[in-house]
Amino acid sequence: MAKAQGKGDTGYSGTRWSTRNSVGENAKNVSLTTLQALLTDAIDLYNATRQAHWNLKGTNFIGLHEMLDGFYNDLNESTDALAERLVQLGGVANGTTQNLASTTRLPPYPADLLDSIGHVKELSERYAMVGKALRDGIDETDDAGDADTSDLLTELSRDIDKKLWMLEAHLQGHGN
Ligand SMILES: [Fe+2]
């Protein structure tokens, strides 16, 4: 059956497998939905970061090109941590291109953009969105009783906040 699409759909299929993990059932349900949505957003952010790394030209080219290399390598680790936490809770992580395209909460990344400052602005918007989504997830999973997932999201949100700062620092004098 086709799933409803749009911002209300996290892309989590609901598929579960049995585990001895003692996190409560309600907490597991909340965390699986939250983790799948964040996994999708984070993979999309990874792809956007690579798009910018490859194509940006102009002001501070080499600094930005190399900085973004570090960003997407970190995001590679972060997406892995989100997916593996989801599986530990008895879920099935969905990292397919098809699910990503239909459920990401980030806006489409402009495929023809070249200007380096333009890329920094586009990325800043998306890093801020993911930072907020992670913070929302910290509270949702903690309130549901899954302190471990909440802790993971806390760690990841600090990292995304740091990257947002490093992006926004390049916008000084460029209309922020
Ligand atoms: Fe590269």
TrEMBL record:
Q: Which Gene3D superfamilies match?
A: 1.20.1260.10
List, alphabetically, the Pfam families matched: Ferritin
Q: Which InterPro entries did the record assign? A: DPS_DNA-bd, DPS_DNA-bd_CS, Ferritin-like, Ferritin-like_SF, Ferritin_DPS_dom
Q: Where is this region: Disordered?
A: 1-20
Ferritin/DPS domain residues: 34-172
Q: Which CDD domains would you find in this protein's record? A: DPS
Q: Give a GO molecular function annotation for the protein.
A: ferric iron binding
Protein family membership: Belongs to the Dps family.
Q: Which PANTHER family match?
A: DNA PROTECTION DURING STARVATION PROTEIN, GENERAL STRESS PROTEIN 20U
Listed name of the protein: DNA starvation/stationary phase protection protein Dps
Per the UniProt record, the source organism is Roseomonas gilardii
**What taxonomic classification does the UniProt entry list for its organism?**
Bacteria, Pseudomonadati, Pseudomonadota, Alphaproteobacteria, Acetobacterales
